[in-house]
Design a protein that fits this description.
Blueprint: H1 2-52, E1 65-68, E2 76-83, E3 95-103, E4 109-116, H2 119-122, E5 128-135, E6 147-152, E7 154-157, H3 174-183, E8 190-194, E9 196-202, E10 208-209, H4 215-218, E11 223-226, E12 229-232, E13 236-238, E14 248-250, E15 257-267, H5 269-287, H6 292-303, H7 307-337, H8 346-365, H9 370-390, E16 393-397, E17 402-406, H10 411-445, H11 451-466, H12 472-481, H13 489-505, H14 513-535
Parallel strand pairs: 1-12, 9-15
Antiparallel strand pairs: 1-10, 2-3, 2-5, 4-15, 5-6, 7-8, 8-14, 9-13, 11-12, 16-17
């Protein structure tokens, strides 16, 4: 028996040693993620510094310097032409829509002009704007020191589906939409008018080093030789980030004139380089399959916020990504090790799964930004997996259709189920009438694209408005057990940070109003959980009534021999 005791002690020692050996492995993934995050942030800060801070030409080597032509203070003129051709050789077949004489590069302005729409453009064609910056009193084609840039005034996009009252079939724009349906199919992209044209000129008297010209600015520069020195002509830039989806107008065959708002403002070299990189990034997203609407959400982050808030948004987004990863990782780890549902509300797990899937389908139906849609989709997959674990479901394939089997629950788990049912019984008296009443009200008074859209909106409105009530069963279980030790508090910690980060994003990223309000609703739920955490403190060294200990090395009293 002594040998057996020593063997058992040795076995426990080996297990403890194995546990200590496994501890660094379990935490290595988190450490690696945090390390990569720190490297990513540091590298991004270094790249951003290199973009906004350009090294000037050293005074010791003046021969290799490229000087600004604007430093000579020439008299300039701004001319904007339109044409259906992507390149022009002379003044034939073009229309002058704006002419600004004695153009001052330092003065900001905004003007709205009416542009004639050619028949080719009305037939789902394209119209281009040519912007010339040239010497005053000289036509652009006769000025050897003119600079110009071209930009399409039209873009192709699938029109938004018509919303109607599902009972009466009435639409506010029924006659207009009927006219469009005779010409275009709603599932085909049609030509839209870009009603804004934003121009910038780089006004800094910056002297570039000819041997190390930034590649991003170089493609916008035009050089001229004046005597022994090389000058670069004014850098003209079109701010494509200001072209938003909300400013687009559908072009139909009856349209002969459309308004165009031309706005101008000076720009610094640092902001110009930053804007060029951002426009290239948006273009890359579109090449990877992002739609015009998805790219528009990214544009809104840059255009609708100032540079300081933009920098804050970057760091907030980076931390949000880190906490999302850590929350997903710890959530999966917690549920992988979970062998029983003791202390956990099965109804709360089912509700979270249902609500997450409904929210994902709603965001998909609303064509929400991929920035919001992708995390919602990942969360829905994880919640479905949790339901499989909570119900102890197994799938057996005996043909084309699998057979679903459910595991047995212990007496303690059945006791938890009684608490669950008791909480849900009282909630159903309040919840179901409110959800059904809201669905009937929206059917009578709100217009939708289809019956499916109404159904998803009704579900999601119930989730957003009353979803936090379905967290009450878990709170009720915590109250009955007078314990919160069974909850995944690491996950809650990461989600707590993300909850407050979501509050910031609620004002930055475009999303449905109901989804924005739900971000603040989550704050209330979180505070209640934190209150229960304070009310029922956890002694991690104590082995609870279910034989579980929450400390890696529980303290043991020494045994008396």
């Amino acid at each position: 028996s002594g040998a057996e005791g020593r063997g058992a002690l040795a076995g426990r020692g080996a297990d403890a040693g194995a546990g200590r050996a496994m501890l660094p492995r379990r935490s290595s993934l988190t450490g690696l993620a945090v390390g990569l995050f720190a490297v990513y942030v540091a590298h991004t800060c270094w790249v951003m510094y290199g973009i906004v801070h350009t090294r000037p030409c050293p005074p010791a080597a003046p021969d290799g310097c490229i000087r600004p032509y604007l430093a000579r203070r020439p008299k300039l003129q701004l001319s904007v032409y339109t044409t259906t051709r992507s390149n022009i050789g002379n003044e034939n077949n073009i229309d002058l829509v704006l002419n600004v004489e004695n153009f001052d590069v330092e003065s900001k302005f905004e003007r709205t002009v009416n542009v004639s729409v050619p028949k080719k453009t009305r037939n789902n064609g394209t119209l281009y704007a040519y912007i010339f910056l040239h010497h005053a009193g000289i036509l652009p084609w006769h000025d050897g020191k003119q600079v110009h840039i071209v930009s399409p005034l039209t873009t192709y996009m699938v029109p938004k589906p018509e919303e109607i009252n599902l009972l009466t079939g009435e639409s506010v724009t029924q006659q207009i939409e009927a006219e469009k349906k005779e010409t275009y199919a709603l599932d085909e992209p049609i030509s839209h008018w870009r009603s804004r044209l934003t121009l910038n000129v780089m006004v800094e008297d910056f002297v570039f080093d000819g041997s190390s010209l930034p590649a991003d600015v170089h493609r916008y520069m035009k050089m001229v030789q004046l005597g022994k020195t090389v000058h670069y002509l004014p850098i003209l830039f079109i701010d494509q980030l200001s072209n938003r989806v909300k400013d687009l107008m559908i072009i139909n065959r009856s349209t002969t004139e459309l308004p165009l708002t031309v706005s101008y403002d000076k720009i610094s070299l640092g902001k110009l380089r930053f804007w060029i990189h951002m426009q290239d990034a948006v273009y890359s997203l579109q090449q990877f399959g992002f739609s015009e609407k998805d790219a528009d959400e990214v544009k809104g982050i840059f255009v609708d916020t100032n540079l300081y808030l933009l920098a804050l948004t970057f760091f907030v987004a980076a931390f949000h990504l880190l906490f999302d990863f850590l929350a997903f990782k710890n959530d999966i780890s917690f549920w992988t090790k979970k062998k029983s549902m003791i202390g956990m509300s099965t109804k709360a797990v089912l509700w979270r799964c249902f609500s997450t899937v409904v929210v994902f389908l709603f965001l998909l139906d609303e064509q929400t930004s991929l920035l919001v849609l992708i995390p919602a989709g990942i969360g829905a997959v994880i919640e479905l997996w949790k339901v499989k674990k909570a119900l102890k479901m197994t799938f057996e394939w005996g043909g084309l259709m699998p057979t679903i089997k459910f595991g047995d629950f212990t007496e303690s788990e059945k006791k938890m189920e009684e608490y669950d049912n008791q909480a849900m019984k009282y909630l159903s008296y309040l919840l179901y009438p409110l959800c059904i009443g809201g669905a009937i009200y929206s059917l009578l008074n709100v217009k939708y694209k289809s019956w499916y859209s109404w159904l998803i909106n009704s579900f999601v409105n119930g989730v957003y408005a009353f979803g936090f009530l379905f967290m009450l069963p878990q709170l009720f279980v915590n109250y009955k057990m007078k314990s919160v030790a069974h909850l995944p508090w690491k996950v809650f910690t990461y989600k707590a940070f993300n909850t407050f980060i979501d509050d910031i994003f609620a004002f930055i990223i475009t999303m449905p109003t109901s989804h924005r309000l739900a971000c603040f609703r989550d704050d209330v739920v979180l505070l209640v959980y934190l209150y229960q955490r304070w009310l029922y403190p956890v002694d991690k060294s104590r082995v609870n009534e279910y034989g579980e200990s929450y400390e890696e090395k529980p303290r043991r009293k020494p045994h008396k021999e």
